[in-house]
Write a structure and sequence with these properties.
mainly beta; Jelly Rolls; eight-stranded antiparallel β-sheet; globular
Length: 180
């Protein structure tokens, strides 16, 4: 049996500050979060996404600090099936409904980059996703995504998010928080 530690009581420690928030009023090929301040310990992305490509779903691609080199390894696990890749030019950071999914279906993706302002060590991202990708039984998908950025050890000051195909639709929203 493991040791469980719980914090009780009010307040203290982990302040959360909104750094960026954007809800699209029109389709967009990407959402670029630039000039991320180095004032926090960790980053948390909360995303509400849908794409317009002619498919039931598409994947979320991410690059850090405009690094389009083969510096990303990623892994996904969706409903007990998994995939991974090494040496990619962007990272698979989630999955969300696209044009042929039921109208109004969006996915929620919550992702974290821990210790993003450390200029000595490589960075990693971990996320959970959930959303419908169709109309029948079994159309709800949930899973986990993760990637490592193997480029230069540097402070993360920019995150660019894009669908693997097509655009994000109007109503897609991305919020970035800094965690102390």
């Amino acid at each position: 049996m493991g040791i469980v530690s719980r914090s009780q009581g009010g307040g203290g420690g982990g302040a959360t500050t909104q750094i960026f928030d954007s809800t699209l009023g029109a389709p967009a090929a990407n959402i670029d979060i630039a000039a991320i301040p180095a004032a926090f310990n960790h980053l948390m992305l909360v995303m509400f996404l849908r794409g317009d490509t002619a498919a039931v779903a598409t994947t979320l691609q991410a690059t850090l600090n405009n690094d389009g080199g083969a510096n990303y390894d990623w892994e996904e696990v969706i409903n007990a099936t998994g995939a991974n890749a090494q040496g990619q030019t962007s990272a698979r950071a989630g999955r969300f409904p696209a044009n042929t999914a039921a109208a109004g279906d969006f996915a929620t993706i919550t992702g974290y980059i821990a210790n993003y302002r450390d200029a000595t060590n490589k960075k990693s991202y971990a996320a959970t996703i959930g959303g419908r990708e169709g109309t029948g039984a079994g159309s709800f998908k949930s899973g986990t995504y993760g990637f490592s950025w193997l480029g230069a050890a540097a402070i993360v000051n920019r995150i660019t998010l894009a669908p693997a195909a097509g655009n994000f639709v109007a109503g897609s929203r991305v919020t970035l928080y800094g965690l102390l």
